[in-house]
């Protein structure tokens, strides 16, 4: 199509040829002939020029038409009649000029007047649909969209479809009015003003079923959610009504605290003409948009289950479709959306294109749309990934239907994201108890003067003799009768047990005790995995430094079975789980190599730049694989994605590693609303494992602390009661490679899943003192929540130091250099669950000990101190002293000399505490 844009250059060439021809005629005396040839050529050039100018006019409509389209049902300003980019005289035309349509616009006629062409183009690009697509980079996509858009005006909606549209609109309106009448004080976040969005859902579901899509993963916020659940997703209104009356939404034998009614979900099969599709509407927290990456991760995991993807660049499936619904203000304002869009084409995160629908209320809470963003449209963020945006007037449900069909067809053809921006309004304020006229009086004067979308559409169909007012009244009466029946049923409603089914069969909630799981493996398997972890193809050129420090060093350690370092223990855990049939996914920024260049699970050929993952080539019949997902520079979206994968399939070990421990801050919303609370709110179990590098090594304020205190505060561990396995999440700081090995394996071998936060080391990764032996990982071994001290004589001990992680090695070194023999050092490896029994047993070994000291390298107002102190006092009935850095408003100092002084003080002071205190 764009070849026509070069026609002006061609015209110059034609004129140049004409001049040469004229000169030639003069030379040879063909004067009578030359005039005729020149005039014919000039007429041809003018025709070409007209064709070129017409193409420029058409392109202007395709590029600028959306700016003048009638897509706002509650506009505060009159529809603009001034369209400077689209004025025909700008392109040298008058209305009566005739032009050739063929090959330029996709109309049924091949030619016509400019007036006819403009009428056609206005109908396509400046009516109830406004499309943005010329920013796309692929000419094939642009041409395809041009054809589809220019065919929309002639697309007929049959009477049966129109009646179905009216039915869904009326059901949605009836539901909102029913709730308003029966539950007057409830914030229901209804769909009033946005009823046309039901057309998006209904059409997507139907097209998906007929298009052989097996699964839809749907993420949406609260507005209109209950309308969709009860209207299309087979959700019993009785459950909503029971919840609104204050009843529990889970069977009584489950431990769950529940969530608000506007976060309910459905997982159901929908059938259209004997073809079905399964729709999973995900739980969403009130932190808007954060569910989007979760939906992408869940989609990705479903694709893996269907075995219609792989672990390479193409990791999406034709059989699973991701749909995300956004609010206009939230989509423009929440950074997680940019992160998600940047993920959409990244290997190991791609899901084959998401269909987005924006419920464009044109106001965020109470902020008018034009003050809630700096761009023209709330969807302008979509342009960063060069995908089309279809704006549509929500007052016209038939046009919403057409826009949805177009979006679906585009996603199916090109496997890319696409946006449908439904411009609508909120009939009420942010919720039904809010008065929006406080801040938006002009807008709500317009809204309150309008007929509702369902009533307006019924009126239209009555005029078309498609249905009668009696028909519409019967639809509403039948739906209200059904809702009344459900309201009666809610009196005795018992929530069904729909949990721990399908891929979660065999799993359950954790019990009220702390269990121990044998996570050791045979030495032969350790040797096999360790050796295979550094084998590469014959022609693969590994980096010379890695050949020595990584390959040869690991083979040597594996052959001896001693001095196993941290990355090798991790490899043994991963490889043994793969051998047992568990998939492992490791995600984060450059995790293949590892932030500290310690892992090298993915090797790069130094000549070809190709990658190789040795653990995926252990044997020919291997059925489980390690997926190394080097992510974009994102925390929130990536962690949300990994969480989504973990809740879909419990047989995948999903590991996210922060580049530095404090990087989790960028994903705090995910930790708060999903990771720490998902099981309590929704009975969503997750075995997500999070690795947070931690240690005060002089890196300054930002990359020293993983802020373990924040995670401990998020746990539901109690200071007045002994913990069990059934804590909301585990927080551990293993101090040996073997302990780390057992933690990773324990995540998969248990019959329940819990999120695991592991505070991992930095300088210990290669430390010669931080090592384990094969004997620490053989059958019969397991993770130990407390490690005692075998280097002291118990009867001589007067003082006990309790510590964790890297700090243990610093204290051990200091004890040795000072020649101290009366002080034992005990390591707490698990903070949550808190190991009361193990600590009691270990402390009891030292009957002469008079002082117990908690030692940490973090500042007093950070680290585990505030968590440890009340538990020692309340559960162990022991007084415990503090030794560590003083309070500070930042995690670490940034002055090298001050850091060095603190590093010396923090390991010296514990040994100077008097034992007669």
Describe it.
By secondary structure, this protein is an alpha/beta fold. It folds into four domains: 2-118, no CATH class; 155-496, Rossmann fold; 523-694 and 733-776, Rossmann fold (3-Layer(aba) Sandwich), CATH 3.40.50.12470; 790-912, Rossmann fold (3-Layer(aba) Sandwich). It is built from 27 helices and 26 strands. The protein has an eight-stranded mixed beta sheet, sandwiched between helices. Strands 16-13-17-18-20-19-24 form a seven-stranded mixed beta sheet, with helices on both faces. The longest helix has 34 residues, at 31-64. The termini are far apart. 46% of the residues are buried. Residues 1-15, 17-30 and 309-313 have low confidence and may be disordered.
Brief overview, please?
This protein has 917 residues and is α/β, with parallel strands linked by helices. It has four domains: 2-118, no CATH class; 155-496, Rossmann fold (3-Layer(aba) Sandwich), CATH 3.40.50.970; 523-694 and 733-776, 3-Layer(aba) Sandwich (Rossmann fold); 790-912, 3-Layer(aba) Sandwich (Rossmann fold), CATH 3.40.50. Helix 23 links the parallel strand 19 and strand 20 (756-760).
């Amino acid at each position: 199509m764009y070849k026509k844009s070069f026609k002006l250059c061609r015209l110059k060439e034609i004129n140049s040829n004409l001049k040469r021809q004229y000169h030639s005629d003069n030379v040879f005396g063909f004067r009578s002939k030359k005039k005729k040839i020149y005039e014919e050529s000039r007429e041809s050039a003018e025709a070409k020029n007209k064709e070129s100018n017409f193409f420029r006019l058409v392109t202007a409509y395709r590029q600028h038409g959306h700016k003048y389209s009638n897509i706002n049902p509650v506009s505060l300003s009159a529809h603009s009649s001034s369209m400077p980019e689209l004025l025909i005289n700008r392109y040298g035309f008058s209305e009566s000029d005739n032009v050739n349509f063929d090959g330029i616009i996709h109309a049924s006629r091949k030619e016509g007047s400019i007036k006819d062409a403009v009428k056609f183009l206005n109908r396509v690009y400046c009516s109830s649909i406004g499309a943005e697509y010329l920013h796309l980079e692929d000419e094939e996509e642009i041409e395809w969209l041009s054809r589809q858009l220019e065919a929309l005006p002639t697309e007929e909606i049959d009477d049966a479809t129109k009646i179905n549209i009216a039915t869904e609109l009326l059901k949605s309106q009836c539901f909102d009015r029913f709730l308003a009448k029966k539950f007057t004080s409830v914030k229901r976040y209804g769909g009033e003003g946005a009823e046309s969005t039901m057309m998006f859902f209904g059409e997507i579901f139907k097209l998906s079923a007929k298009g052989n899509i097996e699964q839809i993963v749907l993420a949406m916020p609260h507005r209109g959610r209950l309308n969709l659940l009860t209207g299309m997703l087979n959700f019993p209104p009785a459950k909503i009504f029971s919840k609104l009356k204050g009843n529990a939404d889970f069977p009584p034998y489950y431990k769950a605290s529940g969530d608000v009614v506007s976060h309910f979900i459905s997982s159901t099969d929908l059938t259209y003409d004997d073809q079905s599709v399964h729709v999973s509407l995900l739980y969403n927290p009130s932190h808007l948009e954060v569910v989007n990456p979760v939906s992408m991760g869940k989609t990705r995991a479903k694709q893996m289950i269907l075995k219609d993807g792989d672990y390479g660049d193409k990791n999406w499936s034709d059989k699973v479709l991701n749909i995300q619904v956004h609010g206009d203000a939230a989509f423009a304002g929440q950074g997680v959306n940019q992160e998600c869009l940047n993920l959409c084409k990244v290997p190991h995160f791609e899901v084959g294109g998401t269909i987005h629908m924006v419920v464009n209320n044109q106001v965020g809470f109470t902020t008018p749309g034009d003050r809630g963003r700096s761009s023209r449209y709330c969807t302008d963020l979509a342009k960063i990934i060069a995908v089309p945006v279809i704006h549509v007037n929500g007052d016209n449900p038939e046009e919403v239907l057409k826009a949805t069909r177009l979006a679906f067809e585009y996603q199916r053809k090109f496997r890319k994201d696409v946006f449908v921006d439904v411009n609508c309004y909120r009939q009420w304020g942010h919720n039904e108890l809010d008065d929006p006229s406080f801040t938006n009086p002009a807008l709500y004067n317009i809204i309150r003067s309008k007929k509702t979308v369902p009533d307006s559409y019924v009126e239209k169909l009555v005029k078309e003799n498609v249905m009668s007012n009696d028909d519409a009244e019967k639809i509403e009466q039948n739906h209200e009768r059904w809702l009344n029946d459900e309201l009666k049923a809610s009196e005795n409603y018992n929530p069904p047990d729909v949990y721990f089914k399908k891929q979660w069969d065999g799993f359950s909630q954790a019990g009220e005790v702390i269990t121990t799981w044998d996570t050791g493996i045979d030495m032969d398997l350790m040797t096999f995995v360790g050796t295979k972890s550094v084998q590469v193809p014959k022609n693969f050129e590994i980096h010379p430094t890695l050949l020595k420090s990584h390959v040869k060093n690991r083979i040597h350690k594996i052959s001896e079975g001693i001095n196993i370092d941290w990355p090798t223990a991790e490899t043994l855990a991963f490889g043994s789980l793969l051998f047992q049939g568990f998939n492992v996914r490791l995600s984060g920024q450059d995790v293949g190599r590892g932030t500290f260049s310690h892992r090298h699970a993915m090797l790069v050929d130094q000549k070809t730049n190709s990658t190789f993952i040795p653990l995926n080539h252990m044997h020919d019949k291997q059925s489980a694989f390690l997926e190394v997902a080097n992510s974009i520079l994102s925390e929130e979206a990536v962690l949300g994605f990994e969480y989504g994968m973990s809740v879909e399939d419990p047989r995948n070990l999903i590991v996210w590693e922060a580049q530095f421990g404090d990087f989790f801050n960028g994903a705090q919303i995910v930790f708060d609303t999903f990771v720490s609370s998902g099981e309590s709110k929704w009975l969503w179990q997750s075995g997500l494992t999070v690795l947070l590098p931690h240690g005060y090594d002089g890196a300054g304020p930002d990359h020293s602390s993983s802020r373990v205190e924040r995670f401990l505060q998020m746990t539901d561990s109690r200071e007045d009661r002994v913990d069990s396995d059934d804590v909301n999440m585990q927080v551990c700081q293993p101090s040996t490679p073997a302990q780390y090995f057992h933690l990773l394996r324990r995540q998969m071998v248990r019959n329940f899943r819990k999120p695991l936060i592991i505070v991992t080391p930095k300088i210990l990764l290669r430390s010669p003192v931080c090592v384990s032996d094969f004997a620490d990982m053989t059958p019969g071994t397991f993770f130990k929540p407390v490690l005692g001290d075998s280097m002291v004589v118990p009867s001589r001990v007067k003082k006990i130091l309790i510590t964790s992680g890297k700090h243990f090695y610093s204290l051990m070194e200091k004890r040795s250099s000072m020649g101290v023999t009366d002080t034992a050092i005990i390591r707490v490896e698990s903070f949550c669950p808190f190991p009361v029994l193990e600590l009691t047993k270990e402390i009891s070994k030292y009957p002469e000990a008079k002082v117990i000291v908690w030692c940490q390298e973090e500042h007093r107002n950070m680290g585990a101190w505030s968590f440890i102190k009340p538990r020692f006092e309340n559960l162990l009935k022991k007084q415990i002293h503090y030794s560590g850095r003083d309070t500070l408003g930042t995690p670490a100092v940034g002055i090298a000399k001050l850091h060095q002084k603190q590093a010396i003080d923090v390991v010296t002071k514990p040994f100077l505490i008097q034992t007669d205190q």
